[in-house]
Amino acid sequence: MAGDSTLIEFTRELEHLVKRSSETPTLSDVAGIARKAALPPREAISVIAQCNPRGGMISTLGCFDRPKLVQQALYELVSGFCEIAKARRVLEMSDLPSYCSVQVMADDGDVNLTYVSRNLEFGEALKAYWGEGRVQSVSDTDKVPDEGLFDLIVAQPPVGYRPAGDTKADGFCGECVRKLLPHLSGSGWLLWVTARGVVWQDRPRQTLAEFQQEGWGVAGMIDLPAGTWPGTTIEGAVVVLRHGWQGQKLVGVLRDVETAASMAIAFGKGPSRKTSPNWVWLDGDDPSGFAEIERQRSLRKLMPRGRHKPRTLASLLISEKIKKADKPVQDGEEASFLYVPEYANCRVTADLDSQTVKPNAVYRLPIDPAQVNPRFLALLLNSAYGKALRQSVARGATIQRVSIPDLLALNIPIPDAPTQNRIARIDGDVDILKAALGECVSATEGDWSAIDEVAETVEQLKAVLDIERRIADWWRELPYPMATIYRLYQVSTDPKARLDTLLHFFEMTAVYLSAVGVSHIMALRGDYQPVLEKLLHPQGAQGIERADFGFWIKLAQASFKELNRITGDIELRTKAGEIGGPELLRTAETIAPLGAATEALVKPLRCRNSWKGHGGHIKPSDAVRLVAELQQDVRDLFESTSSIFRRFQLVRPGKAEFGQAYRYDFERLMGSDPAFENGLAELDRPATSNELAFWLQDSRTMCRAVHFFRLGAPQHMQETSVYVFNRVDDRGFRWISYQESREQEIFAPDDELRSFVESRPKGA
Fold first, then answer.
1. pLDDT tens track for 350-388
2. Which of the four pLDDT bands, split at 50, 70 and 90, describes residue 718?
3. How much is the pLDDT for 63?
4. Pick from 583, 596, 609, 449: which is nearest to 523 by CA?
5. The domain at 69-288 falls in which architecture?
6. What is the pLDDT of residue 743?
7. How many Å apart are CA 610 and CA 340, to the nearest integer?
8. How far apart are alpha carbons 120 and 126 in whole angstroms?
């Protein structure tokens, strides 16, 4: 990547050119300046593609975006294919101002490129940057030179283009690819970079079948996350074509540069039984894509443990005549029904009154009670496994629906009848307990004279559950660093210190929740930058440059609201699954209730901002009173977070081994003891070693934690010291510690936080 000095030199030369030229500079002029300034290929091509001389040239340092990391992965993949093909002649076709072969040209000075595009100006700019001897530019596929075959062809035809009068066009410009195939050498590779729909839409799949009939086989099908396909923000795919029938093909997903390198190596070695978290070899006629492979892996992981027999849902019915729930029940029909909404994400019930979906969108399934308990079946289909199972057969771009044939074909694990009945009975008992507790609340609302009886009932339940003891020992399960502060609060004897530490605990909780929410937004949204700009610099309010208790609470609330939107909106959910994977999407759903924990922080904020709580001048008796008043907030926080914090942990990945999966040694940052617990995790996706990450226990993915807090000061690496970002002042980034008495504040830079602080939403 170019340094800022190189980019500054480029923009300075560009400004001089614009000022002294009477005519609008061409892209070739810009390319010449990039070459003169020694701007590296990736960034040179990126800034050339962003320049628009006809619309006026912007020549400030901040106007040029560096290539996205996901696009660099595509460049590396193309370069990998060039290496395994030992390519000397490369052809790339694109009507976008895009150039996937940039890494190929940078890696090997002997490679020559023919660039085919109706955008001749961009092609001429490539010639100006690389030199006439290495690049040829032609306007369309009919003008490709015939003096030799190409070892590698990269085709990015326009999606949606249909030639006039061509009624058989597939909408993905497969006819352009057909024209390029005869120019491919016998051992060469053609990479068709296009939209994701080529994998599942009927017409492009028919085009691929026609290619096979004409002697070209599909050697691979690689999914591209949103933003990888240059010039677009949609999901893409790379179809790999070669001469002859391909008995096996590689299907995978391109997630990062490391994935691209390993995938190219796998292509070079050929078919293998070895699998990877990112790719697998399948039979050539297998229609499955890698998304389907990941779904099957996920289902195997979510499968409930215990003895069971797989049964199709159809085999559990007394009749396969399925009707909607708004139709009347005919005389003689069995009364045991299961009500399944046609929408994949909605709740299954054993009675219609409990349904929240309109009856005309609910399937009524006549269950055979001799084979299965309907209440158990409803519980199973509402579990994480059941939801994933229904989603695996759902169809629809906007609203995911399950058809009756797909629903009946579901293969479901069914235990013996006694186990089914016990599971259903426990669920009923839990409902009874919930109802009893609800009655206690209602009784105190309507009749205060009954308070003694209600209090006795609640105390009996508390004695059984030992809630108070669990709250006192909560530090054993809390994630670090909150555990250290909470433990310090528990052992403090000075009333003022005890109050201060309790308020610090609440504030650290707000920071931690903010980090959780923001980190998962960054991992699940390809376009997270504008979202974070609004979250970190809210309109009309204080931004991250002065991050106080109130800011952290608002950021936690807003980030979890956005996280709920990602998991609840069908379009955002689909994109999140492509970017972060199904495992991280399920983690986001699991931790979503943490957003409600911010309600328990409002009263501590008021106390912290009062002159008594914040000014340091407070009588011991007032401190004792305030601590007592805040106990309900501690209980509320425990109730809304403890079950999740028990599984959702802060870890620090260490050494990694790559085999069937990524195996990481890690330190689990739980409790207040600085001697962190060591563990081993198997992941489907790589994690960043020695960087803090959030991990749902037994999940196969981790989410890197954003740098809102850090362990240890640079000057004194004390693992027990936690420093939280506080504000920017004349000395730099100020970090404060809630428990370090020797050095309560430090000043240390952080590049990630700098980008957050300097970012601003449009119009701000």
1. 888 888 889 999 999 999 888 999 999 999 999 989 998
2. very low
3. 43
4. 583
5. 3-Layer(aba) Sandwich (3.40)
6. 67
7. 53
8. 10
Query: Which residues contact residue 409 at a Cβ distance below 8 angstroms, ignoring those fewer than 6 apart?
Result: 312, 313, 314, 393
Question: Domain ranges in the chain?
Answer: 4-63, 69-288, 297-415, 422-465, 469-711
Residue type, 666: F
Rounded to whole angstroms, the Cα distance separating 561 from 564 reads 5
Q: How far apart are CA 426 and CA 419, in angstroms?
A: 11
Torsion of CA 709, 714, 716, 718, to 10 degrees: 30
Q: Which residues contact 117 (CB under 8 A, 6 or more apart)?
A: 93, 94, 95, 123, 137, 139
Preceding amide of 481 cis, omega within 30: yes
pLDDT of residue 23: 66
The pTM for the full model equals: 0.57
Across the range 157-176, mean pLDDT stands at 79
Per-residue pLDDT tens for 511-530? 999 999 999 999 999 888 88
HEC secondary structure over 185-233? EEEEEEEEEEEHHHHCCHHHHHHHHHHHHCCEEEEEEEEECCCCCCCCC
Q: Answer yes or no: are the C-beta atoms of 694 and 516 closer than 8 Å.
A: yes
Angle between helices 495-524 and 582-591 (to 10 degrees): 150
The kind and range of the H/E element at 467 are helix 467-472
The token duo for 292 is 């389907």
143: pLDDT strictly greater than 60: yes
- 202-208-214-217 Cα dihedral, nearest 10 degrees: -150
User: Looking at the domain 297-415, which fold is it?
Assistant: Adenine-n6-DNA-methyltransferase TaqI; Chain A, domain 2 (3.90.220)
Angstrom CA distances, 542 to 312, 522, 537, stand at 57, 22, 7
CA dist 516 and 502 (Å) reads 21
